[in-house]
Amino acid sequence: MTGLSRRRRLAAVAVIALAAVTGSACSSSSGDGSSDGGAYLVWDPYPQFAADSEWVALLKKCGTSAGATTVERTGYDTTDLTNKALLAAQQSNSPDVLIVDNPVISTLAEAGALTTTDDNKLDVSAMATNLLGAGQSAGKTYGVPIGANTLALYYNKDLLTAAGVDPASIKDWPSLTTALTTVKAKGKKGITFSAIGTEEGSFQFLPWFWGSGAQLTSLDSPQAVSALTLWTDWLKQGLAPNSVINNTQTTSWQEFATGDYAFAENGTWQLANAEKLGFSYGTIAIPASAGGPAPAPTGGEFVSIPVQKKTDRYETSQKIVACLTNADNLLTTDTTLSYVAPVAAVQDRQAAADPKLKVWVEAVRAAKGRTGDNLGTKYPKISESLWTAVQAALSGGKSPGEALTAAQAATR
């Protein structure tokens, strides 16, 4: 690709950068992408980690072992990082190592801002295939997953015991609906989730959508209609509250924390809050329509190496990334971030160290990337159409079929 065509491509992709999506997301000193010869720049979406944190210590350790004189790290808000990464690429001023939310990878790859793992020689052979897919575009891989989070169902043990519901009996949609109906008959509330008209709403609907057998290339399929009908019927029957229409994942969790709800759909990022609940809790995988765990969308980041004018820097950058993503360092990092590791052997170590993570490991193993199936930068438009349909159906403005027919038409 010539310099001119690459700049044009970057400029075109930058126009849609604001649509780059995050499902669950996380400033520090400013960085402009420039460095002296010995300093290697790392940009990440973890502004919550200060300069004296274990994360920054690991970055510096990996820089030293790779032969970099210094590592200069800047943490940005997720959305801000996407925009800055595109701007830096336009200016040929990218950091040496870039850590970004997984749906952003396809945006940067399409812009020509990232090197491929074939180019930079990063080894991804041990990475879980379903997680690696979020960092792939047109048959090429553009980074290494550092970890993943996803969704499952938290449940109130005390409430289910009082209602005579065994969570182990919940295997599919009918058995879950039966459990919710039983809880409601006992004077309690069924399930809360986030159906807000943003990416959070799509993120939470996708396990049910994919669990029906539907595909994002056909939003109006009978399977997709069955998934939206499930949610709509729950609201009509009082098994889920009308507040889900405006709930974020945070406000949905707050509803569950009252102790009045049997279930809440939420993610690994709530594990610390779960330990503070005033009741005993457990987790189960979100069931697919006909049984088994539904594919849930993956959150989490990829470590990538942006295109550089000075190609002699790639070797050191590759060593830094390899250090960050080796098994021992992944275990430490993913424990800090409440992520499930992208490597099966490390996932097993996590589950052995904390049995509560077993459900989350199973959920991540069944999960899939939102930009997978070669959707790439098409995903943001599809997602917006999907959350618009969910809003229309849950509010009663359209039937599930009508809402999804309009959604499919909007993606053309």
What are the secondary-structure elements, in order, as H or E? HEHEHEHHHEEEEHHEHHHEHEEHHHHHH
How far is the first residue's CA from the last residue's CA? 29 Å
Summarize model confidence as the mean pLDDT: 90
Q: What is the quaternary state of this protein? A: single chain
Shape estimate: globular
Strand content: 5-15%
Helix/strand-derived class? alpha/beta
C-alpha-based Rg, rounded: 22 Å
| Number of DSSP helical runs | 18
**How much helical structure, as a percent, in the residues?**
40-55%
Number of strands: 11
List low-pLDDT spans: 1-8, 10-36
The biggest sheet, with number of strands, parallel, antiparallel or mixed sense and barrel status, is: 5 strands, mixed
Strand order of the largest sheet: 2-1-3-11-6
Keywords:
412 residues; alpha/beta; five-stranded mixed sheet; four-stranded mixed sheet; 18 helices; 11 strands; globular; disordered N terminus
